[in-house]
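job 3f2a | input accepted
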Amino acid sequence: MIIMINNKNEREQKKNEAISMREAGDLENALNLFEEIEKWDEKNGNPTGQIDVLGHIRITYDRLGDQADKLEEKKKMYEKEREALEKALDIVEDSDVGRKAILQVHLASSKFSLAVLKEDLEKKNDLLDALEIINKAIENLPGTIAHKAWPLNIQAKILFELDREEEGFEAVTLGEKCIFQGYNDQIEASDNAELEIKVWLSGLYLTLAKYFSSKKENILAELYAGVVSKMPDPNNLLGERKKEAERILEKL
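job 3f2a | predicted structure (252 res):
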């Protein structure tokens, strides 16, 4: 894929296109577009943009790994996301506390994805490392209150995997509260607010659906997955989330 970018405004438009493609479920094409944008950033001396898009590349590889059927393919995608994250961590300045916090969210998510493939003590240790990282990231995360719903969802996933159920529920509830309290600020602050709010809220519900499914509490799993599956989405902003909800429902 070859894209034409003449300035940062065009670059931002392409990034938003790639985000929409990813959330609609077009992961491969989204990945290709993100990678082309990252090359442009590197060539044109745009480190802040490069760090940002490497985070989006990391998320896309994580989604590809989640969907992979074979264990080796999952590991391959999760290692690819780790490579993108390590590149971003090499670029970011230590003094850039906010951007480092965003990368810490990515790091915790990456550690979680790999940890769940492991067993026993190694798994628990990696999950505890991920939890420590996400806790620090939440404290320093830039943006609106609503933005905190993103790392709180990852925190909840880690806590559920550690069988710390009550804390996991508290993280999800706090994530919802952050979206509700920060809604107006997010609308004012971001051109992509509709997508972000829908993705963050549906992500919290999918985390609950997966957890209840793992506990064989199928009525609750069906309710939360069903909410995501039936969310109004005329612009197909939640295509990927809806596919995930359908996969949960099919397994019940």
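job 3f2a | The mean pLDDT is 94.
job 3f2a | closed
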